[in-house]
Amino acid sequence: MGELKLMKGNEVIAEAAIRCGCDGYFGYPITPQSEVMETLMAREPWNETGMVVLQAESEVASINMVYGAAATGKKVMTSSSSPGISLMAEGISYIAGAELPCVIVNVQRGGPGLGTIQPSQADYFQSVKGGGHGDYHLIVLAPASVQEMNDFVDLGFQLAFKYRNPSMILADGAIGQMMEKVQLSDFKPRMTAEEIDAKYGSWATNGKKPNRERNIATSLEMDSAKMEANNKRFQEKYAKMQAEDVLYETIRCDDAEYILVAFGVSSRICQKAVDIAREKGMKVGLLRPITLFPFPKQIIGEMAKRVKGFMTVEMNAGQMIEDVQLSVGCAGCAVPVKYFGRMGGIIPTPSEVVQALEQKLIGG
Amino acid sequence: MDVKDIIKPENLVYEKPGMLTANTMHYCPGCSHGVVHKLIAEIIEDLGIQEKTIGVAPVGCSVFAYNYIDIDWQEAAHGRAPALATGISRTNPDKIVFTYQGDGDLASIGTAEIMHACNRGENFAVIFINNGIYGMTGGQMAPTTLLGQVTATTPYGRDAERNGYPLKITELIAQLPGTSYVTRQSVHTPAAIRRCKKAITKAFEAAMDKKGTSFVEVVSTCNMNWKMTPVQANQWMEENMFPFYPPGDIKDGSKADPASFKQN
Ligand SMILES: Cc1ncc(C[n+]2csc(CCOP(=O)(O)OP(=O)(O)O)c2C)c(N)n1
Q1: Among A166, A298, A314, which residue's Cα sits nearest to residue A237?
Q2: What range does the domain containing B153 cover?
Q3: Is the peptide bond before A112 cis (omega within 30 degrees of 0)?
Q4: Does residue B13 surpass a pLDDT of 90?
Q5: b/e map B48-75, b = 16+ CB within 10 Å
């Protein structure tokens, strides 16, 4: 294990990237995540590990730089916040279509449009349902602490390479800006050219070797039958993610009659709300999805058979609630699923959450 | 003498370059893309750089460039090839990278990417096919379409008031301190093809020597969308495009030395 430090979430993303053997970072400044690139530039990892850091001319360029480097088998990433992620949507779709691994960090701010620089979770749909054109999914990890900002960089790369699919770390302005204690990771060396050839030689476009056919990174296929086959392969990949890589956390759910469902910073608020509700005699638990795609459908379905209802707590107008409703419905259950949230950069308070629970679910 | 006595390896004076694949090209007869592909294939073979070279294909008629030249390729979104090439060459400084782009790809939707890559002096070569029209989508106006030129979206000729002026992007690129060798060529005669081959070779060598971004514009024909025969198209190009896009070297050197860089 690396050192124990007090650090900002955004700074930790940078440090974790260097430590996990990342080959390159390409980004464009935007609040509330500019510290990621600032930290990298100050750390000068090119002297230490050989990692490349480049400030691009736009998010359109940075995601396409990620495409180029990722397609050579390198471990590369970018970070941005909501408006920048919208600009990247085209590139992300191409990366998913060309089946390339990378990590994209979205430190969300309120929208739509230029919106606000305050924290938000309003990019849930954009992140888990696709965001760009075509039938694809990102692997979406939702950190709820500075520690998870550290841990999910490496995890994001592992999953991205396992599936040859982009991973997104869906954070928010609060997690990005807050300081917490963090156990940093140990340094992992960057992969050598020989290791890349050995592991990714079947697809990496790093120069045609005499012992293999030329590799082509592309999402284009003019033959509809082949394109449908590609799409089917992608769908199988998403089904495999659903079977093998769902992550979630449950807090005081064992005897719970009512379940709060919340991710990221909202789940931190809900932990406190659970304590307050329990003190008041309400049997409340918290389910925290860690992977938003693949979504923890199954556990919600199982819970739906024994609890009296769910309430999602989201910093948006109610987006994840649709996935919770689907999970409950697919399990053949009909317990109520309610939503409580704040928008525009406002973080709900624990007492607001308890009040909403009483009004919308328990009292009603 | 029998034909069989003539068809012998030792009598061979011309053959398909080894770096060209056996795939049948989809280009229209008379199109310049195929000639430029052949030159690139020959150059990669001559320089012996197949194992080190990575090409970036555009969106446009040459989207399938990767089917024809036997090297590793990446297919970019429309206009983004210079960003991909930046990502490749920054993380693989030992590789030789080039983009191959049309005028819509490079001078319209991808203007920001090409300008900034050239301004940073990224060490890759750019092959820019300027046929004054959008070939792939059926002959609409390109940024390089000449005033008065008829296209699918300028059916009465390009009008400066309505459509703006033709863009001399190569002259702009030559102004950027990150570029090394910037030239304008064509492939309409055997002599022009030989000159163009020299220019592309030089551009590849500049990228290999890390001199900055090298840039070869090839003024090209699109006889299909110009609605001409191949011969008419060559003639039209000489008479109309060359006066506005004159062939020749525009810049020959290295990216600016920061120590001598003038800030005024
Ligand atoms: C984002 C996006 N916009 C539009 C298109 C449609 N499109 C495909 S090729 C092309 C223009 C190609 O023209 P050019 O770059 O001059 O190349 P040419 O086909 O003439 O070789 C356009 C507009 C696209 N594929 N993607």
Answers
A1: A166
A2: 26-253
A3: yes
A4: no
A5: ebbebbbbbbbbbbbbbbbbbbbbbbbb
Residues 6+ apart with CB under 8 A from A330: A297, A301
B237 or B10, which is more confident: B237
pLDDT per residue as tens digits for the range A182-224: 999 999 999 999 999 999 999 999 999 999 999 999 999 999 9
Rounded to the nearest 5°, which phi and psi values hold at B159? -115, 125
Q: Find all residues with CB under 8 Å of B227, minimum gap 6, and list them.
A: none
Whether B6 maps to a domain, the answer reads no
A150 and A47 housed in the same domain:
yes
CA gap B107, B116 in Å, rounded: 13
Cα–Cα distance between A42 and B194 in angstroms, integer? 49
How many C-beta atoms lie closer than 10 Å to residue A281's C-beta?
7
**Ligand 1 pocket, B136 CB below 6 A?**
yes
State how many domains chain A has: 2
Domain carrying residue A295: 248-362
Instruction: Give the angle B63-B64-B66 at the CA atoms, nearest 5°.
Output: 115
Residues 51-90 of A with CB under 8 A from B: 52, 54, 56-58, 60-62, 64-72, 74, 76, 90
* Pairs of CB atoms within 8 A across A/B: 127
B4 CB-side CA count, 13 A: 0
In A, minimum Cα distance to B65 occurs at: A216
Looking at the 3D structure of chain B, how many domains does it have? 1
The CB of B131 under 6 Å from ligand 1? The reply is: yes
> Cα-flanking dihedrals φ and ψ of residue B113, to 5°?
-65, -45
CA quadruple A14, A17, A18, A22: dihedral, nearest 10: -140
Both A94 and A178 in one domain: the answer is yes
Determine the 3-state secondary structure of A103 from DSSP.
strand
Considering only CB atoms, which chain A residues are within 8 Å of B91?
23-24, 52, 69, 72, 74, 76
3-state secondary structure of A246: coil
From the CB of B134, is ligand 1 less than 6 Å away?
yes
Supply the DSSP symbol for A187: P
b/e per residue A203-227 (b: at least 16 CB within 10 A)? bbbbbbeeeeebbbbbbeeeeeeee
Q: Residue A110 and residue A344: Cα distance in Å, rounded?
A: 5
The complex's ipTM? 0.96
Q: Which residues of chain A have pLDDT under 70?
A: 364
Cα–chain-centroid distance for residue B234? 17
* Residue A34 shares a structural domain with residue A168: yes
Asked if B60 contacts B136 with a C-beta cutoff of 8 angstroms, the reply is yes
**Tens-place pLDDT, residues A21-80:** 999 999 999 999 999 999 999 999 999 999 999 999 999 999 999 999 999 999 999 999
The pTM for the full model equals 0.97
- A44 burial class (0-12, 13-18, 19+ CB within 10 angstroms)? exposed
